[in-house]
Design goal:
This protein is mostly helical. The protein has eleven helices and no strands. Helix 4 crosses helix 9, helix 5 (about 75-90) packs parallel to helix 9 (about 180-230) and helix 8 (about 120-170) packs antiparallel against helix 9 (about 180-230). About 25% of the residues are buried.
Length: about 270
């Protein structure tokens, strides 16, 4: 589980309230009408901008924020190495049974392509096209939150303009209306405050975290593609593993190779 997004939002909210506003003056920043303009306006703009099918993915996208990295690259490389050993020993056709045991449809598709003796260029093209399509879907989801981040301050400004118009229309210097300018101006500016908070403490962090999740899956699938093609070309399993670990950070690279060096039944990771 990855709670950094939730933790960051909570820390930001606490700092704004305690350091910036102070709890004693928190009531000055509560205005239901302003909140309705900003939140309602941003939500309505997002709904107007995207089809229902894409909006239906929002719960799944939000769940990704706390799921953490679901892709174990070390396990993937070990599996590819094992398949490479099996293919060198018994031929590519021996991988068919192994492919049927895989839960990942993309991985299974790639293995079945090489089992069916598909040309390497076609294997790469098909798999990379699928990755590109996946990435495009993810980027559409990320764009939704970037749009919401842009809409929030815009509706904050709209709320400010509405408040200023109402303030000026209600001003009557002869009847003491000037005394209401300060409170009315503060109310008008609260909508801008709400818009900035929503954009920078909620929607932008969500978009950034989804970008990280997309990059994690892209790396995982890129390693998978290179491993499948290496198996098809008959690469030495040890060379295949050393080649694939170059896609990860040096610290993680050493951990993967060290784990492989341990004898079966050895101790767990330190």
């Amino acid at each position: 589980m990855d709670i950094t997004t939730i933790l960051g939002i909570i820390i930001g909210a606490v700092l704004v309230v305690v350091v910036g506003i102070t709890p004693a003056k928190l009531g000055n920043f509560w205005d239901p009408a302003s909140l309705a303009i900003v939140v309602g306006g941003a939500i309505s703009a997002v709904i107007s901008s995207y089809p229902l099918g894409q909006l239906a993915r929002i719960p799944k996208q939000l769940a990704l924020l706390i799921q953490g990295n679901r892709y174990n690259i070390g396990t993937l490389i070990d599996t590819l190495e094992e398949m490479a050993q099996l293919a060198r020993k018994n031929g590519l056709l021996a991988l068919e049974e192994k492919a049927n045991e895989l839960d990942d449809p993309f991985f299974k598709q790639g293995i079945m392509l090489i089992v069916d003796a598909t040309e390497p260029e076609e294997v790469r093209s098909m798999l990379e096209n699928e990755v590109d399509a996946m990435s495009a879907r993810h980027e559409d989801g990320i764009a939704l939150y970037n749009k919401a981040s842009a809409f929030s301050p815009a509706f904050g400004m709209i709320g400010t303009l509405v408040g200023l118009v109402n303030m000026l229309k209600g001003m009557d210097l002869d009847s003491g209306g000037a005394s209401n300018i300060g409170p009315a101006m503060a109310t008008a500016l609260i909508t801008t405050f709400y818009g900035c908070i929503l954009a920078n403490m909620l929607f932008s962090p969500i978009a950034n975290k989804l970008t990280v999740r997309n990059d994690e899956e892209l790396l995982y699938k890129q390693i998978m593609i290179e491993g499948i093609l290496a198996i098809q070309s008959g690469d030495n399993p040890k060379f295949l593993k050393e080649k694939l670990v170059t896609y990860v950070a040096q610290k993680q690279r050493g951990k993967i190779l060290d784990q492989a060096a341990k004898p079966a039944g050895g101790g767990g990771e330190e």
